[in-house]
Amino acid sequence: MIVLHGRKVVGGSTQGEALVTKETISGWGGIDPQTGTIIELRHELRGQSFKDKILVFPGAKGSSGWSSFFHRARLAGAAPRGMIFNKMTTKIALGAVVTHSPAVTDLDQDPLKVIETGDWVEIDADQGIVKVTKRQERPAG
Amino acid sequence: MRLTNSEKAMLDGSEGRAVQKAMELLVRYGEALGAERLVDTNNVCGAVTAPSPWKLEIAKKRGVEYGLHAGFSEMNLDSDEVINVPRVKVYTCQLIQQFGPDTASLHDGSREMLDLQKQADGFFGSRGIHIMATCTPYQVGNVPVKGEHCAWMESSAVVYCNSVLGARTNTEGTESTGAASLTGKIPYWGYHLPENRFGTHLVEVEVPVEDMMDWGLIGYYVGEIVQNEIPVLRGQISQPELIKLKHFGAAASSSGGVEMYHIPGVTPEAPSVEAAFGPRQPVQTLRYGKEERRIAYENLNSSAKDRKVDFVMLGCPHDSIEQVWQAARQLEGKRLHPGTELWIHTPRALRELADRSGYTKIIEEAGGHILSDSCPAISRMMPRGTRVVATDSAKQAHYLPAITGVQTWFGSLKDCIDAALTGTWSGGLP
Fold first, then answer.
1. Cys-Cys crosslink for B232: which of A122, B87, B163, B276, Cβ 3.0 to 4.6 Å?
2. SS3 B23
3. Phi and psi angles of residue B307, each rounded to the nearest 5 degrees, phi first
Protein backbone atom coordinates (compact mmCIF):
# COMPACT_ATOMS: atom_id res chain seq x y z
CA MET A 1 0.00 0.00 0.00
CA ILE A 2 1.16 3.52 -0.84
CA VAL A 3 0.30 6.44 1.46
CA LEU A 4 0.16 10.03 0.21
CA HIS A 5 -0.18 13.15 2.36
CA GLY A 6 -1.87 16.34 1.26
CA ARG A 7 -4.43 18.96 2.18
CA LYS A 8 -8.18 18.79 2.72
CA VAL A 9 -10.39 20.53 0.16
CA VAL A 10 -13.67 18.99 1.30
CA GLY A 11 -13.75 16.94 4.52
CA GLY A 12 -14.90 13.37 5.16
CA SER A 13 -13.74 9.84 4.40
CA THR A 14 -14.45 7.61 1.43
CA GLN A 15 -13.02 4.78 -0.62
CA GLY A 16 -13.46 3.39 -4.09
CA GLU A 17 -11.92 2.43 -7.39
CA ALA A 18 -9.78 5.05 -9.08
CA LEU A 19 -10.55 6.58 -12.46
CA VAL A 20 -7.39 8.41 -13.53
CA THR A 21 -6.82 10.88 -16.34
CA LYS A 22 -3.80 13.00 -17.15
CA GLU A 23 -6.09 15.48 -18.95
CA THR A 24 -8.02 18.31 -17.31
CA ILE A 25 -11.81 18.00 -17.29
CA SER A 26 -14.49 20.42 -18.45
CA GLY A 27 -17.76 20.58 -16.49
CA TRP A 28 -20.30 22.36 -18.69
CA GLY A 29 -19.85 20.91 -22.17
CA GLY A 30 -17.45 18.27 -20.85
CA ILE A 31 -19.64 15.92 -18.82
CA ASP A 32 -23.18 14.55 -18.85
CA PRO A 33 -24.35 15.30 -15.29
CA GLN A 34 -27.13 12.72 -15.46
CA THR A 35 -24.68 9.82 -15.82
CA GLY A 36 -21.29 11.29 -14.88
CA THR A 37 -19.94 10.47 -18.36
CA ILE A 38 -17.12 12.46 -19.97
CA ILE A 39 -18.40 13.75 -23.33
CA GLU A 40 -15.61 16.08 -24.52
CA LEU A 41 -14.74 15.05 -28.09
CA ARG A 42 -10.99 14.59 -27.88
CA HIS A 43 -10.79 13.60 -24.18
CA GLU A 44 -9.00 10.34 -23.31
CA LEU A 45 -11.87 9.35 -20.97
CA ARG A 46 -14.62 10.11 -23.48
CA GLY A 47 -17.52 7.73 -22.88
CA GLN A 48 -16.39 6.72 -19.36
CA SER A 49 -18.30 7.64 -16.19
CA PHE A 50 -16.85 8.84 -12.88
CA LYS A 51 -20.01 7.89 -11.00
CA ASP A 52 -19.04 6.27 -7.67
CA LYS A 53 -15.34 6.39 -8.64
CA ILE A 54 -12.45 8.21 -7.02
CA LEU A 55 -11.69 10.72 -9.75
CA VAL A 56 -7.94 11.44 -10.03
CA PHE A 57 -7.14 14.24 -12.46
CA PRO A 58 -4.93 17.29 -12.98
CA GLY A 59 -7.74 19.81 -12.49
CA ALA A 60 -10.60 21.70 -14.08
CA LYS A 61 -10.81 23.62 -17.33
CA GLY A 62 -13.35 25.36 -19.49
CA SER A 63 -16.63 27.04 -18.70
CA SER A 64 -17.61 28.57 -15.38
CA GLY A 65 -20.51 26.11 -15.40
CA TRP A 66 -18.00 23.61 -13.91
CA SER A 67 -19.39 23.70 -10.38
CA SER A 68 -23.04 23.63 -11.41
CA PHE A 69 -22.50 20.56 -13.59
CA PHE A 70 -20.77 18.62 -10.80
CA HIS A 71 -23.48 19.96 -8.44
CA ARG A 72 -26.12 18.52 -10.78
CA ALA A 73 -24.21 15.23 -11.00
CA ARG A 74 -24.53 15.01 -7.20
CA LEU A 75 -28.28 15.73 -7.35
CA ALA A 76 -28.60 13.02 -10.04
CA GLY A 77 -26.63 10.50 -7.93
CA ALA A 78 -23.82 10.45 -10.51
CA ALA A 79 -21.07 12.29 -8.59
CA PRO A 80 -17.61 10.85 -8.04
CA ARG A 81 -17.21 9.30 -4.59
CA GLY A 82 -14.07 11.35 -4.01
CA MET A 83 -11.71 13.68 -5.86
CA ILE A 84 -7.92 13.92 -5.94
CA PHE A 85 -6.37 16.64 -8.06
CA ASN A 86 -3.19 18.69 -8.51
CA LYS A 87 -3.96 22.17 -9.74
CA MET A 88 -6.11 24.35 -7.49
CA THR A 89 -8.48 26.72 -9.28
CA THR A 90 -11.72 28.40 -8.30
CA LYS A 91 -13.63 26.10 -10.66
CA ILE A 92 -12.46 22.96 -8.95
CA ALA A 93 -12.59 24.34 -5.39
CA LEU A 94 -16.20 25.43 -5.76
CA GLY A 95 -17.03 22.31 -7.78
CA ALA A 96 -15.63 20.05 -5.07
CA VAL A 97 -17.43 22.00 -2.33
CA VAL A 98 -20.85 21.66 -3.96
CA THR A 99 -20.25 18.01 -4.95
CA HIS A 100 -19.98 17.30 -1.19
CA SER A 101 -17.57 14.39 -1.82
CA PRO A 102 -14.30 14.21 0.15
CA ALA A 103 -11.52 15.87 -1.83
CA VAL A 104 -7.78 16.45 -1.37
CA THR A 105 -4.97 18.26 -3.19
CA ASP A 106 -1.31 19.29 -2.71
CA LEU A 107 -0.16 15.66 -2.26
CA ASP A 108 3.49 14.92 -1.49
CA GLN A 109 3.75 12.65 -4.56
CA ASP A 110 2.08 13.21 -7.92
CA PRO A 111 -1.15 11.21 -7.71
CA LEU A 112 -1.26 10.99 -11.53
CA LYS A 113 1.99 9.00 -11.41
CA VAL A 114 1.21 6.90 -8.33
CA ILE A 115 -2.45 6.03 -8.94
CA GLU A 116 -3.72 4.10 -11.96
CA THR A 117 -7.28 3.42 -13.07
CA GLY A 118 -8.59 0.40 -11.19
CA ASP A 119 -6.46 0.91 -8.06
CA TRP A 120 -8.36 0.95 -4.75
CA VAL A 121 -8.13 4.36 -3.08
CA GLU A 122 -9.06 5.39 0.47
CA ILE A 123 -9.33 9.10 1.29
CA ASP A 124 -9.33 10.56 4.80
CA ALA A 125 -9.73 14.15 3.72
CA ASP A 126 -9.74 15.69 7.21
CA GLN A 127 -6.27 14.21 7.83
CA GLY A 128 -5.23 14.80 4.20
CA ILE A 129 -4.32 11.11 3.81
CA VAL A 130 -4.72 9.01 0.66
CA LYS A 131 -4.03 5.23 0.74
CA VAL A 132 -3.57 3.45 -2.56
CA THR A 133 -3.77 -0.32 -3.07
CA LYS A 134 -2.49 -1.24 -6.51
CA ARG A 135 -4.88 -3.26 -8.62
CA GLN A 136 -2.51 -6.23 -8.90
CA GLU A 137 -2.13 -6.34 -5.09
CA ARG A 138 -5.88 -6.42 -4.49
CA PRO A 139 -7.35 -9.81 -3.60
CA ALA A 140 -9.31 -11.25 -6.52
CA GLY A 141 -13.07 -10.74 -6.56
CA MET B 1 -9.97 31.92 7.12
CA ARG B 2 -9.89 35.26 8.96
CA LEU B 3 -13.30 36.95 9.01
CA THR B 4 -14.03 40.56 9.95
CA ASN B 5 -16.58 41.30 12.65
CA SER B 6 -19.26 42.14 10.09
CA GLU B 7 -18.52 38.93 8.18
CA LYS B 8 -18.77 36.96 11.44
CA ALA B 9 -22.11 38.64 12.13
CA MET B 10 -23.41 37.55 8.72
CA LEU B 11 -22.24 34.01 9.48
CA ASP B 12 -24.08 34.14 12.80
CA GLY B 13 -27.32 35.06 11.08
CA SER B 14 -27.60 38.75 11.97
CA GLU B 15 -28.68 39.57 8.39
CA GLY B 16 -31.10 36.70 7.99
CA ARG B 17 -31.00 33.08 6.88
CA ALA B 18 -30.18 33.69 3.20
CA VAL B 19 -27.13 35.84 4.00
CA GLN B 20 -26.07 33.31 6.64
CA LYS B 21 -26.24 30.44 4.14
CA ALA B 22 -24.35 32.56 1.61
CA MET B 23 -21.58 33.28 4.13
CA GLU B 24 -21.38 29.60 5.14
CA LEU B 25 -20.80 28.68 1.50
CA LEU B 26 -18.17 31.41 1.04
CA VAL B 27 -16.28 30.10 4.09
CA ARG B 28 -16.36 26.49 2.83
CA TYR B 29 -15.26 27.68 -0.60
CA GLY B 30 -12.55 30.00 0.73
CA GLU B 31 -11.13 27.23 2.92
CA ALA B 32 -11.16 24.79 -0.02
CA LEU B 33 -9.10 27.32 -1.97
CA GLY B 34 -6.77 28.01 0.93
CA ALA B 35 -7.77 31.71 0.91
CA GLU B 36 -6.82 33.75 3.97
CA ARG B 37 -9.75 36.15 3.81
CA LEU B 38 -12.64 37.56 1.78
CA VAL B 39 -12.63 40.78 -0.25
CA ASP B 40 -15.44 43.28 -0.85
CA THR B 41 -17.04 43.30 -4.28
CA ASN B 42 -19.72 45.50 -5.79
CA ASN B 43 -19.80 43.81 -9.19
CA VAL B 44 -21.31 40.34 -9.47
CA CYS B 45 -22.21 38.59 -12.74
CA GLY B 46 -23.96 35.30 -12.13
CA ALA B 47 -26.54 32.84 -13.38
CA VAL B 48 -29.78 32.53 -11.45
CA THR B 49 -32.72 32.89 -13.82
CA ALA B 50 -32.46 29.97 -16.24
CA PRO B 51 -35.28 27.46 -15.72
CA SER B 52 -34.68 23.75 -16.32
CA PRO B 53 -36.40 20.42 -15.78
CA TRP B 54 -33.91 19.58 -13.03
CA LYS B 55 -34.66 22.82 -11.15
CA LEU B 56 -38.37 21.89 -11.28
CA GLU B 57 -37.34 18.47 -9.95
CA ILE B 58 -35.53 20.14 -7.03
CA ALA B 59 -38.67 22.10 -6.16
CA LYS B 60 -40.78 18.95 -6.34
CA LYS B 61 -38.37 17.07 -4.07
CA ARG B 62 -38.46 19.89 -1.54
CA GLY B 63 -42.26 19.85 -1.69
CA VAL B 64 -42.63 23.54 -2.49
CA GLU B 65 -45.06 25.10 -4.89
CA TYR B 66 -43.02 28.05 -6.11
CA GLY B 67 -39.80 26.60 -7.48
CA LEU B 68 -37.70 29.74 -7.87
CA HIS B 69 -36.84 29.92 -4.17
CA ALA B 70 -35.91 26.23 -4.10
CA GLY B 71 -33.87 26.47 -7.30
CA PHE B 72 -31.93 29.49 -6.04
CA SER B 73 -31.34 27.88 -2.63
CA GLU B 74 -29.89 24.71 -4.12
CA MET B 75 -28.07 25.97 -7.22
CA ASN B 76 -27.00 29.44 -6.01
CA LEU B 77 -26.41 28.83 -2.29
CA ASP B 78 -25.76 25.04 -2.15
CA SER B 79 -28.58 24.82 0.40
CA ASP B 80 -31.10 21.97 0.48
CA GLU B 81 -33.12 24.09 2.90
CA VAL B 82 -35.50 26.28 0.88
CA ILE B 83 -34.80 29.93 1.68
CA ASN B 84 -36.84 32.87 0.42
CA VAL B 85 -34.69 34.86 -2.01
CA PRO B 86 -34.10 38.35 -0.60
CA ARG B 87 -33.00 41.43 -2.52
CA VAL B 88 -29.34 41.31 -3.50
CA LYS B 89 -26.95 43.47 -1.51
CA VAL B 90 -24.61 44.61 -4.34
CA TYR B 91 -24.62 45.32 -8.08
CA THR B 92 -25.55 42.00 -9.67
CA CYS B 93 -26.18 41.11 -13.32
CA GLN B 94 -27.67 38.01 -14.90
CA LEU B 95 -25.43 36.55 -17.60
CA ILE B 96 -26.58 34.40 -20.53
CA GLN B 97 -29.73 32.40 -19.77
CA GLN B 98 -32.39 30.48 -21.70
CA PHE B 99 -34.41 31.70 -24.65
CA GLY B 100 -37.77 33.33 -23.97
CA PRO B 101 -41.23 32.95 -25.56
CA ASP B 102 -40.28 35.25 -28.49
CA THR B 103 -38.25 32.37 -30.00
CA ALA B 104 -41.01 29.75 -29.72
CA SER B 105 -41.55 29.44 -33.50
CA LEU B 106 -37.86 28.82 -34.24
CA HIS B 107 -37.15 25.57 -32.40
CA ASP B 108 -38.68 22.63 -30.57
CA GLY B 109 -38.00 23.97 -27.08
CA SER B 110 -40.69 23.40 -24.46
CA ARG B 111 -43.17 26.26 -24.25
CA GLU B 112 -43.32 25.72 -20.49
CA MET B 113 -39.59 26.46 -20.15
CA LEU B 114 -39.77 29.54 -22.39
CA ASP B 115 -42.60 30.92 -20.25
CA LEU B 116 -40.77 30.03 -17.02
CA GLN B 117 -37.77 32.01 -18.24
CA LYS B 118 -39.97 35.08 -18.60
CA GLN B 119 -41.42 34.52 -15.14
CA ALA B 120 -37.92 34.15 -13.67
CA ASP B 121 -36.81 37.44 -15.30
CA GLY B 122 -39.54 39.26 -13.37
CA PHE B 123 -38.91 37.39 -10.11
CA PHE B 124 -35.16 37.99 -10.01
CA GLY B 125 -35.50 41.47 -11.47
CA SER B 126 -37.62 42.36 -8.46
CA ARG B 127 -34.71 41.17 -6.25
CA GLY B 128 -32.46 43.75 -7.94
CA ILE B 129 -30.69 41.44 -10.38
CA HIS B 130 -30.25 43.21 -13.72
CA ILE B 131 -31.39 40.90 -16.50
CA MET B 132 -28.63 41.67 -19.02
CA ALA B 133 -29.06 38.11 -20.33
CA THR B 134 -25.77 37.99 -22.18
CA CYS B 135 -22.36 36.35 -21.97
CA THR B 136 -20.90 39.81 -22.72
CA PRO B 137 -21.96 42.16 -19.90
CA TYR B 138 -19.09 44.45 -20.91
CA GLN B 139 -20.93 45.16 -24.18
CA VAL B 140 -24.05 46.46 -22.44
CA GLY B 141 -22.76 48.74 -19.72
CA ASN B 142 -21.07 46.58 -17.10
CA VAL B 143 -17.52 47.77 -17.68
CA PRO B 144 -15.55 47.49 -14.43
CA VAL B 145 -12.64 49.81 -13.81
CA LYS B 146 -8.98 48.72 -13.64
CA GLY B 147 -8.27 47.21 -10.23
CA GLU B 148 -11.94 46.70 -9.32
CA HIS B 149 -12.70 43.44 -7.50
CA CYS B 150 -15.44 41.51 -9.29
CA ALA B 151 -17.15 38.15 -8.91
CA TRP B 152 -17.94 37.06 -12.44
CA MET B 153 -18.91 33.82 -14.08
CA GLU B 154 -18.75 33.08 -17.81
CA SER B 155 -15.24 32.14 -18.84
CA SER B 156 -15.20 34.43 -21.89
CA ALA B 157 -16.30 37.41 -19.76
CA VAL B 158 -13.82 36.59 -16.98
CA VAL B 159 -10.84 36.56 -19.33
CA TYR B 160 -12.04 39.85 -20.87
CA CYS B 161 -12.51 41.43 -17.42
CA ASN B 162 -9.00 40.51 -16.24
CA SER B 163 -7.05 40.98 -19.44
CA VAL B 164 -8.68 43.78 -21.40
CA LEU B 165 -10.21 45.82 -18.55
CA GLY B 166 -7.63 45.11 -15.83
CA ALA B 167 -10.36 44.47 -13.28
CA ARG B 168 -9.92 41.46 -11.01
CA THR B 169 -11.98 38.33 -10.95
CA ASN B 170 -11.56 34.61 -10.71
CA THR B 171 -13.83 32.32 -12.69
CA GLU B 172 -16.71 32.09 -10.26
CA GLY B 173 -19.63 29.67 -10.44
CA THR B 174 -23.40 29.77 -9.97
CA GLU B 175 -23.08 29.08 -6.24
CA SER B 176 -20.28 31.55 -5.43
CA THR B 177 -21.89 34.38 -7.41
CA GLY B 178 -25.21 33.68 -5.68
CA ALA B 179 -23.44 33.99 -2.33
CA ALA B 180 -21.53 37.10 -3.44
CA SER B 181 -24.72 38.85 -4.56
CA LEU B 182 -26.19 38.54 -1.05
CA THR B 183 -23.03 39.41 0.90
CA GLY B 184 -20.84 41.62 -1.30
CA LYS B 185 -17.93 39.24 -0.55
CA ILE B 186 -15.77 36.76 -2.47
CA PRO B 187 -12.59 34.87 -1.49
CA TYR B 188 -9.43 36.98 -1.83
CA TRP B 189 -7.48 34.46 -3.88
CA GLY B 190 -6.02 33.95 -7.34
CA TYR B 191 -6.48 36.88 -9.69
CA HIS B 192 -7.52 39.25 -6.89
CA LEU B 193 -3.86 39.30 -5.76
CA PRO B 194 -1.55 41.47 -7.88
CA GLU B 195 1.34 38.99 -7.66
CA ASN B 196 -0.74 36.31 -9.41
CA ARG B 197 -1.44 38.43 -12.48
CA PHE B 198 1.97 38.29 -14.18
CA GLY B 199 2.60 36.29 -17.36
CA THR B 200 3.84 32.69 -17.30
CA HIS B 201 4.27 31.74 -20.99
CA LEU B 202 5.74 33.75 -23.85
CA VAL B 203 4.06 33.22 -27.22
CA GLU B 204 6.16 34.24 -30.23
CA VAL B 205 3.63 35.01 -32.95
CA GLU B 206 5.28 34.28 -36.30
CA VAL B 207 2.27 34.50 -38.63
CA PRO B 208 0.20 37.66 -39.00
CA VAL B 209 -2.81 37.76 -36.65
CA GLU B 210 -5.24 40.20 -38.18
CA ASP B 211 -8.82 39.15 -38.82
CA MET B 212 -11.46 37.57 -36.55
CA MET B 213 -10.66 34.03 -37.66
CA ASP B 214 -6.94 34.57 -36.94
CA TRP B 215 -7.77 35.66 -33.39
CA GLY B 216 -9.98 32.63 -32.81
CA LEU B 217 -7.32 30.22 -34.12
CA ILE B 218 -4.48 31.62 -32.03
CA GLY B 219 -6.70 31.68 -28.94
CA TYR B 220 -7.71 28.07 -29.45
CA TYR B 221 -4.11 26.94 -29.97
CA VAL B 222 -2.60 28.90 -27.08
CA GLY B 223 -5.34 27.90 -24.62
CA GLU B 224 -4.80 24.21 -25.26
CA ILE B 225 -1.06 24.54 -24.59
CA VAL B 226 -1.02 26.88 -21.57
CA GLN B 227 -4.23 25.53 -19.94
CA ASN B 228 -4.82 27.68 -16.81
CA GLU B 229 -1.70 29.80 -17.16
CA ILE B 230 -1.11 33.37 -18.36
CA PRO B 231 0.19 33.75 -21.92
CA VAL B 232 1.98 36.88 -23.13
CA LEU B 233 1.71 37.43 -26.89
CA ARG B 234 4.31 39.24 -28.95
CA GLY B 235 5.21 39.37 -32.60
CA GLN B 236 3.05 39.76 -35.69
CA ILE B 237 -0.09 41.06 -34.03
CA SER B 238 -2.00 43.98 -35.47
CA GLN B 239 -3.91 46.33 -33.14
CA PRO B 240 -7.06 44.42 -32.07
CA GLU B 241 -10.52 45.85 -31.37
CA LEU B 242 -13.04 44.67 -28.76
CA ILE B 243 -14.54 41.98 -30.99
CA LYS B 244 -11.17 40.36 -31.71
CA LEU B 245 -10.17 40.16 -28.06
CA LYS B 246 -13.69 38.90 -27.27
CA HIS B 247 -13.10 36.04 -29.74
CA PHE B 248 -9.51 35.37 -28.66
CA GLY B 249 -10.39 35.10 -24.97
CA ALA B 250 -13.45 32.92 -25.58
CA ALA B 251 -11.35 30.51 -27.68
CA ALA B 252 -8.47 30.38 -25.16
CA SER B 253 -10.79 29.81 -22.22
CA SER B 254 -12.57 26.97 -24.07
CA SER B 255 -9.60 24.93 -25.25
CA GLY B 256 -7.72 25.51 -21.99
CA GLY B 257 -8.77 27.54 -19.00
CA VAL B 258 -7.13 30.88 -19.72
CA GLU B 259 -8.44 33.54 -17.33
CA MET B 260 -5.87 36.21 -18.09
CA TYR B 261 -3.40 37.12 -20.83
CA HIS B 262 -1.23 40.05 -21.74
CA ILE B 263 -0.57 41.70 -25.08
CA PRO B 264 2.22 44.20 -24.42
CA GLY B 265 1.30 47.64 -25.67
CA VAL B 266 -2.40 46.72 -25.83
CA THR B 267 -3.68 45.35 -22.51
CA PRO B 268 -3.56 47.64 -19.46
CA GLU B 269 -1.24 45.69 -17.17
CA ALA B 270 1.40 45.14 -19.84
CA PRO B 271 3.04 48.34 -21.08
CA SER B 272 5.96 46.10 -22.10
CA VAL B 273 6.93 42.42 -22.23
CA GLU B 274 9.06 42.97 -19.10
CA ALA B 275 6.11 44.50 -17.23
CA ALA B 276 3.86 41.63 -18.32
CA PHE B 277 6.17 39.09 -16.66
CA GLY B 278 7.13 41.28 -13.68
CA PRO B 279 9.35 39.26 -11.35
CA ARG B 280 8.61 35.99 -13.19
CA GLN B 281 10.64 34.27 -15.88
CA PRO B 282 8.59 32.63 -18.65
CA VAL B 283 8.22 28.92 -17.83
CA GLN B 284 7.94 28.16 -21.54
CA THR B 285 8.23 29.98 -24.84
CA LEU B 286 5.81 28.80 -27.54
CA ARG B 287 5.94 29.46 -31.21
CA TYR B 288 2.75 30.22 -33.10
CA GLY B 289 3.50 29.79 -36.79
CA LYS B 290 1.85 28.38 -39.89
CA GLU B 291 1.88 24.79 -38.60
CA GLU B 292 0.33 25.73 -35.23
CA ARG B 293 -2.35 27.72 -37.03
CA ARG B 294 -3.16 24.69 -39.17
CA ILE B 295 -3.37 22.42 -36.11
CA ALA B 296 -5.86 24.78 -34.45
CA TYR B 297 -7.96 24.92 -37.61
CA GLU B 298 -8.03 21.13 -37.97
CA ASN B 299 -8.88 20.59 -34.31
CA LEU B 300 -11.77 23.06 -34.57
CA ASN B 301 -13.10 21.29 -37.66
CA SER B 302 -12.51 17.74 -36.41
CA SER B 303 -16.23 16.98 -36.01
CA ALA B 304 -17.27 18.08 -39.52
CA LYS B 305 -17.58 15.82 -42.58
CA ASP B 306 -20.75 16.66 -44.54
CA ARG B 307 -20.56 19.86 -46.55
CA LYS B 308 -24.33 20.35 -46.66
CA VAL B 309 -24.99 22.93 -43.92
CA ASP B 310 -28.38 23.05 -42.15
CA PHE B 311 -27.71 25.82 -39.68
CA VAL B 312 -25.41 28.83 -39.49
CA MET B 313 -24.79 30.18 -35.99
CA LEU B 314 -23.20 33.59 -35.42
CA GLY B 315 -22.72 35.49 -32.18
CA CYS B 316 -20.67 33.48 -29.68
CA PRO B 317 -19.79 35.34 -27.54
CA HIS B 318 -22.81 37.53 -28.31
CA ASP B 319 -22.23 39.78 -31.31
CA SER B 320 -21.42 43.47 -31.02
CA ILE B 321 -23.59 45.83 -33.03
CA GLU B 322 -20.68 46.13 -35.47
CA GLN B 323 -20.76 42.35 -36.04
CA VAL B 324 -24.53 42.40 -36.58
CA TRP B 325 -24.00 45.11 -39.18
CA GLN B 326 -21.18 43.17 -40.87
CA ALA B 327 -23.53 40.19 -41.25
CA ALA B 328 -26.42 42.39 -42.42
CA ARG B 329 -24.22 44.05 -45.02
CA GLN B 330 -23.30 40.69 -46.54
CA LEU B 331 -26.93 39.53 -46.56
CA GLU B 332 -28.55 42.65 -47.95
CA GLY B 333 -30.74 41.91 -50.94
CA LYS B 334 -30.02 38.17 -50.83
CA ARG B 335 -31.98 35.09 -49.70
CA LEU B 336 -30.80 32.19 -47.59
CA HIS B 337 -30.57 28.79 -49.23
CA PRO B 338 -33.86 26.91 -48.69
CA GLY B 339 -33.33 24.46 -45.85
CA THR B 340 -30.48 26.44 -44.27
CA GLU B 341 -31.25 28.52 -41.18
CA LEU B 342 -29.30 31.49 -39.83
CA TRP B 343 -29.37 32.68 -36.22
CA ILE B 344 -27.42 35.74 -35.13
CA HIS B 345 -27.08 36.18 -31.35
CA THR B 346 -26.68 39.58 -29.74
CA PRO B 347 -27.58 41.04 -26.32
CA ARG B 348 -31.16 42.29 -26.11
CA ALA B 349 -29.98 45.86 -25.52
CA LEU B 350 -28.04 45.69 -28.80
CA ARG B 351 -30.98 44.04 -30.55
CA GLU B 352 -32.80 47.28 -29.84
CA LEU B 353 -30.03 49.11 -31.69
CA ALA B 354 -30.18 46.63 -34.58
CA ASP B 355 -33.94 47.13 -34.87
CA ARG B 356 -33.61 50.89 -34.76
CA SER B 357 -30.80 50.95 -37.32
CA GLY B 358 -32.66 48.71 -39.77
CA TYR B 359 -30.24 45.75 -39.54
CA THR B 360 -32.86 43.38 -38.15
CA LYS B 361 -35.07 44.06 -41.15
CA ILE B 362 -32.24 43.32 -43.61
CA ILE B 363 -31.40 40.06 -41.83
CA GLU B 364 -35.02 38.96 -41.59
CA GLU B 365 -35.73 39.83 -45.23
CA ALA B 366 -32.85 37.51 -46.16
CA GLY B 367 -34.51 34.79 -44.08
CA GLY B 368 -32.26 34.98 -40.99
CA HIS B 369 -33.14 35.67 -37.37
CA ILE B 370 -31.67 37.76 -34.57
CA LEU B 371 -31.93 36.10 -31.17
CA SER B 372 -31.02 37.31 -27.70
CA ASP B 373 -30.67 35.95 -24.15
CA SER B 374 -29.08 32.58 -25.00
CA CYS B 375 -27.25 30.51 -27.64
CA PRO B 376 -27.44 26.96 -29.04
CA ALA B 377 -24.73 25.57 -26.73
CA ILE B 378 -26.35 27.00 -23.58
CA SER B 379 -29.96 26.27 -24.52
CA ARG B 380 -29.38 23.16 -26.67
CA MET B 381 -31.95 24.73 -28.99
CA MET B 382 -31.31 24.66 -32.71
CA PRO B 383 -33.52 24.70 -35.79
CA ARG B 384 -35.41 21.42 -36.20
CA GLY B 385 -33.43 18.63 -37.81
CA THR B 386 -30.02 20.32 -37.58
CA ARG B 387 -27.21 17.89 -38.35
CA VAL B 388 -24.48 20.15 -39.65
CA VAL B 389 -23.66 23.60 -38.25
CA ALA B 390 -21.36 26.36 -39.48
CA THR B 391 -20.08 29.04 -37.11
CA ASP B 392 -17.46 31.79 -36.92
CA SER B 393 -16.96 31.05 -33.21
CA ALA B 394 -14.13 28.85 -31.97
CA LYS B 395 -15.95 28.47 -28.64
CA GLN B 396 -19.20 27.28 -30.19
CA ALA B 397 -17.28 24.93 -32.54
CA HIS B 398 -15.52 23.49 -29.50
CA TYR B 399 -18.65 22.86 -27.44
CA LEU B 400 -21.56 22.22 -29.84
CA PRO B 401 -20.45 18.80 -31.18
CA ALA B 402 -19.79 17.53 -27.65
CA ILE B 403 -23.03 18.87 -26.20
CA THR B 404 -25.47 18.15 -29.02
CA GLY B 405 -23.72 15.64 -31.31
CA VAL B 406 -23.93 17.86 -34.42
CA GLN B 407 -21.09 18.28 -36.88
CA THR B 408 -19.67 21.79 -36.74
CA TRP B 409 -17.64 23.74 -39.29
CA PHE B 410 -15.53 26.66 -38.10
CA GLY B 411 -14.50 29.50 -40.38
CA SER B 412 -14.72 33.19 -41.14
CA LEU B 413 -17.89 35.28 -41.16
CA LYS B 414 -17.72 35.23 -44.95
CA ASP B 415 -17.44 31.40 -45.01
CA CYS B 416 -20.51 31.25 -42.77
CA ILE B 417 -22.60 33.72 -44.78
CA ASP B 418 -21.63 31.86 -47.98
CA ALA B 419 -22.81 28.62 -46.36
CA ALA B 420 -26.10 30.28 -45.39
CA LEU B 421 -26.65 31.51 -48.95
CA THR B 422 -25.58 28.33 -50.77
CA GLY B 423 -26.34 25.62 -48.22
CA THR B 424 -22.80 24.30 -48.73
CA TRP B 425 -19.61 24.68 -46.72
CA SER B 426 -16.75 25.85 -48.91
CA GLY B 427 -14.54 27.37 -46.23
CA GLY B 428 -10.89 26.55 -45.83
CA LEU B 429 -7.72 27.83 -44.28
CA PRO B 430 -6.39 30.74 -46.36
1. B276
2. helix
3. -85, -10
Q: Give yes or no on whether B5-192 and B301-422 have one common fold.
A: yes
- Name the minimum distance, in Å, from the CA of B393 to any CA of chain A: 15
pLDDT value for A140: 59
Kindly identify which residue of chain B lies nearest to residue A73, measuring between CA atoms: B54
Give B156-203 pLDDT, tens digit per residue.
999 999 999 999 999 999 999 999 999 999 999 999 999 999 999 999
Above 80 in pLDDT, residue A138? no
Opening angle at CA A85, ends B230 and B37, nearest 5: 65
| Complex ipTM > 0.90 | yes
pLDDT for position A137: 73
Residue spans of the domains in chain B: they are 5-192, 198-299, 301-422
The Cα B430–Cα B425 span in angstroms is: 15
Cβ contacts of A103 on chain B, cutoff 8 Å: 32
Residue A81 confidence (pLDDT): 98
Using an 8 Å CB-CB cutoff, list chain A residues near B152: 64
Judged by CB atoms within 8 Å, which residues 59-98 of A form the interface with B? 59-68, 71-72, 75-76, 87-91, 93-98
Cβ contact (<8 Å) for B75 and A71?
yes
Segment B241-258 shows an average pLDDT of: 95
CA–CA separation, B229 vs B211, rounded Å? 25
Give the residue on B whose Cα is nearest the Cα of A104. Answer: B32
pLDDT exceeds 60 at position A95: yes
A26: annotated active-site residue? no
CATH class of domain segment(s) B301-422: alpha beta
Domains annotated on chain A, with CATH: 2-136 (3.50.30.10)
Question: Is it the case that residue B430 has pLDDT exceeding 90?
Answer: no
CA distance readout (Å), B163 to B229, B233, B253, B276, B306:
13, 12, 12, 11, 38
CATH level 3 topology of B5-192: Aconitase; domain 3 (3.30.499)
Do residues B181 and B90 touch, judged by C-beta distance below 8 A?
yes
Q: Calculate what percentage of chain B has a pLDDT beyond 90.
A: 94
Supply the pLDDT for residue B257. 86
- Rounded to two decimals, the pTM is 0.95
Q: Which distant-in-sequence residues (6+ apart) come within 8 Å of B278 by Cβ?
A: B195, B198, B199
Compute the average pLDDT of residues A14-26: 96
Please name the residue of chain A whose CA is at the shortest distance from the CA of residue B156: A63
Q: Which residues of B touch A (CB under 8 A)?
A: 25, 28-29, 32-34, 47, 54, 57-58, 74-75, 78, 152-155, 158, 170-176, 187, 189-190, 227-228, 253-254, 256-257, 299, 302-303, 377, 398-399, 401-403
Rounded CA separation B215/B251 (Å): 8
Taking residues B200-225, report their average pLDDT: 98
